């Protein structure tokens, strides 16, 4: 359907870098099709964000099929906007419509169980709505991002606001509550047995606390100290721990982890998906080296990036470069003296940081996950 775009542009690129005119035209058409598909995807993401923020998916899952007036009355959304959103979602194949042939005010819509697992069930491992929220939060900062790209400054985590903070927390919450204690930690040599007997855990860059809570839920005898530099995240983490009945074993402190005074007190020190964000990763890893007991474990989980750069790359690397450009690198560069790692932290980069912090090396653990790689820091 984008042949007209390819026709308009093929003449400018035919024969470039030794490619034949026929191949150049094919590549132009393929990229035009890709851009069009990406536009559709971007629109889906933003309309999903609207449905999430207005409570539309939860309502359609719990009470559907519902008509336009039912949805508008229950959510307080204006009826005309309600109708447009429902129709768009049905056309996009995201929600179901009972009979599309009846008049608009008689159509009834619902959200299937399969799609609810992605869009409204925050406990589901398939829950993906937070990623739409993340994109919306980043898009809201585009003017500031353009300025940052020109000046070399950054956009701080605080500037991205509540949408970004809750998106990050909710995206990882199901994994931390369901997989961290049942699968990931038992796969780390020596950790499971140590924690079942009690012990202390330091969770660096804990965010809203779901990783700390997941550890405490899986190991009822441990105490967990979560550390983070974001005040709103620490406040939310404390609320979550109290709501889970874990306030006596899980504590959260607002502090830069590089300045934590603890020395040799922890059986396990963790850093889940945060090292690449830190302006001073070596300083924080040096602190982790000091915090862990002799014979204890320092565990880092970060993005699963290929060992080396290549182009084009796989989907996960494309995703991480996009997040890096819009969120992680600008946040990192908002701090004076930042190393500016960005989301795409390859194993050799972490290895260099670890060695500079006093570790001998890193071990890549045999824990399989599409998005994350797990490292044990040695020595």
UniProtKB/TrEMBL annotation:
GO molecular function: methyltransferase activity
Cited Gene3D superfamilies: Vaccinia Virus protein VP39 (3.40.50.150), Winged helix-like DNA-binding domain superfamily/Winged helix DNA-binding domain (1.10.10.10)
Domain of life: Bacteria
Pfam family, one: Methyltransf_31
Ranges for domain S-adenosylmethionine-dependent methyltransferase Rv2258c-like winged HTH: 46-120
Keywords, in A-Z order: Methyltransferase, Transferase
Span of the signal peptide: none
Domain Methyltransferase residue range list: 197-304
Transmembrane regions listed in the UniProt entry: none
Region of interest called Disordered, as start-end residue ranges on this chain: 1-25
InterPro entries reported in the protein's UniProt record: Methyltranfer_dom, SAM-binding_MTase, SAM-dependent_MTases_sf, WH-like_DNA-bd_sf, WH_DNA-bd_sf, WHD_Rv2258c
GO biological-process terms attached to the record: methylation
Protein name, entry field: Methyltransferase domain-containing protein
Organism (species): Nocardioides agariphilus
């Amino acid at each position: 359907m984008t042949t007209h775009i390819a026709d308009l542009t093929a003449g400018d690129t035919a024969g470039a870098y030794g490619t034949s005119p026929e191949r150049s035209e094919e590549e132009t058409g393929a990229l035009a099709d890709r851009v069009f598909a990406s536009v559709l995807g971007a629109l889906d993401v933003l309309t999903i964000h609207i449905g999430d923020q207005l409570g539309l998916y939860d309502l359609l899952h719990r009470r559907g099929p519902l008509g336009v007036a039912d949805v508008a009355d229950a959510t307080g959304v204006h009826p005309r906007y309600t109708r447009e959103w429902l129709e768009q979602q049905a056309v996009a194949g995201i929600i179901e419509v009972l009979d599309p042939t009846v008049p608009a005010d008689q159509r009834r819509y619902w959200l299937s169980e399969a799609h609810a697992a992605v869009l409204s069930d925050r406990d589901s491992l398939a829950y993906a709505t937070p990623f739409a929220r993340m994109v919306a939060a980043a898009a809201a900062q585009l003017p500031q991002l353009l300025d940052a790209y020109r000046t070399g400054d950054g956009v701080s985590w605080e500037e991205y606001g509540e949408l970004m903070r809750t998106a990050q927390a909710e995206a990882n919450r199901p994994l931390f509550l369901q997989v961290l204690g049942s699968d990931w930690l038992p796969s780390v040599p020596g950790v499971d047995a140590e924690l079942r007997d009690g012990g202390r855990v330091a969770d660096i860059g804990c965010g809203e606390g779901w990783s700390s809570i997941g550890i405490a839920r899986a190991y009822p005898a441990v105490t967990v100290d979560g550390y983070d530099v974001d005040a709103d995240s620490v406040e939310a983490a404390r609320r979550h721990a109290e709501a889970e009945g874990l306030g006596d074993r899980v504590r959260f402190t607002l502090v830069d982890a590089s300045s934590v005074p603890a020395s040799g007190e922890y059986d396990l020190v963790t850093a889940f998906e945060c090292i690449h964000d830190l302006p001073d990763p070596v300083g924080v890893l040096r602190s982790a080296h000091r915090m862990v007991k002799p014979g204890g474990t320092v565990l880092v989980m970060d993005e699963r990036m290929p060992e080396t750069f290549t182009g084009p790359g796989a989907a996960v690397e494309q995703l991480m470069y996009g997040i890096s450009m819009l969120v992680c690198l600008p946040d990192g560069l908002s701090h004076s003296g930042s190393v500016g790692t960005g989301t795409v932290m390859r194993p050799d980069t972490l290895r260099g940081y670890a060695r500079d912090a006093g570790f001998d090396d890193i071990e890549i653990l045999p824990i399989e996950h599409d998005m994350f790689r797990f490292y044990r820091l040695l020595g």
